[in-house]
């Protein structure tokens, strides 16, 4: 793995990066024409490198024009890896780890050691905050994007871990009629249909439909379930200046949830002893302990060209997720005998809703020596939730010799703990271009935030700046630096804390970045960034309460490469060298310590070779490395680092005149047993070796 890190470091230049400041690609006299044209070409490029970025206000911008660390996992990468989960996609980007949960139900993710907030940091088509409390399907997505670091200018109150954007597939100029069947050796099987058409005398109407149904099994004991997806994406070019888009998706997953393992209480000397890593197929929970969740997301967008240089954008969306959950954690166990207690949390009929609105006017102001691309916008978001709980039950269990868990009933009627967050704000941004080489970007956001529960209310009003400078010394290279401030939610107390459900007050985060991006031989995008982020830190106090704990600083170097090295060889690679510390002098136990679940190093390398002598055949391999991580903020124990290996092959041919692709992917080839997740005092084991088989027919 040291060799992989060194190779990545040597391949990429030293770099920098900037925040999400510019909301639009540069405007010119063709702005109205661009707005008035429906993109009928498919976004699928068949490349590991994306030609554009569609996150935030950087819609359709070249990666070189995005003054911030950004990664795009294209449809070609997702297909080459047979990826169907968020973690499966994001493991290709630097600094991504699982947090608290091991992925048996959904992916709880941290980036650069900072949790990606599940209600605000995940976006559909760069806009709607979807609720990541159920596995978000990728079958109807064209790409997965990550905008690293602070993104408050456009997205409001969000942690500076990054925005994860899922871009929906849309109808292109070519019709699509695909049927895919997939399975693994444990009995999981799915059928997926993907159909797209354009209609009308000028092909002004477009529709894409994705449907999926199947049985779920991930190879762990006491696990069963199913999932389904129904999604449609419509677009309509009503006139030369007016267009509409509508996305609707509904998905459900009902599976058994694998039990988490709680970190032991500290020893007399202040250290913590971790148990031996259980076999990856071990599940201490009962198969009856279901995680039954469903989500519906609706997003409507209108674009209107106001003239040659000005345009108007209107968006409205709603996301709703409900779940019934029988979550459990194994605790109070004896390391020698394995005897302990399984605590089961009953959470029936939990509800989470987001309503989101945006309006934005943008335009281009030409000038003799400086031109301006400006954006004026307003967003309003309301997040409602009711994380109902109906008490806990305990049963005896053994870590080394698990027993069947008899079905339990909730010990009490569900309580109601509703809360509401209102996050609204205006933003203004000006990208000033001085010739072709220099750009100065100035922005500001005025925020109004209010969170309310049955027992407390917090309010915040502030104006935060954003500034960046971009220099393009030669064609294909951009260098930039930035400073950004943003307010963020400090988090919500998790279910296993004494103040479960409590919303912590919002706080200020600050970010500085410098970076460079370069396109090499028109086939590979190289990126490097040095970042320095200060943000509020949280901890668990002596009363088992989730509370604020001063500041934490995250600084480091991030490297990335993606694209076609040669006509036959494609790769996507990343590395992170992170220095993260807690800075709260009032708490000597955590001062100078690494925040929990934060690795100092991560790296990934995935490559596919398309054999020139065997048309249609491609072989692939991937290495994914995560360094050791502390299990708590006091650093009283660390889980070991791990490396997993994936191998794959896919072959495209014609059967009965239809283009057909057969694929096999083997994840965790060596069947490595490792702690795949930590954080919040919990541990989870990584997934066992899994063979995925797919067959896709294009009618």
UniProtKB/TrEMBL annotation:
GO BP annotations listed: siderophore transport
GO annotations of cellular component type: cell outer membrane
TonB-dependent receptor-like beta-barrel domain span: 276-669
This protein's record includes keyword Chloroplast: no
Pfam name, any one: TonB_dep_Rec_b-barrel
Signal sequence coordinates: 1-23
Keyword Mitochondrion attached: no
Compartment annotation: Cell outer membrane
Topology of the protein relative to the lipid bilayer: Multi-pass membrane protein
A Gene Ontology molecular function term of the record: signaling receptor activity
Domain TonB-dependent receptor plug: 64-160
Keyword vocabulary terms for this entry: Cell outer membrane, Ion transport, Iron, Iron transport, Membrane, Receptor, Signal, TonB box, Transmembrane, Transmembrane beta strand, Transport
Domain of life: Bacteria
Location of the motif TonB C-terminal box: 682-699
Alphabetized SUPFAM superfamilies for the sequence: Porins (SSF56935)
Family to which the UniProt record says this protein belongs: Belongs to the TonB-dependent receptor family.
Record-given protein name: TonB-dependent receptor
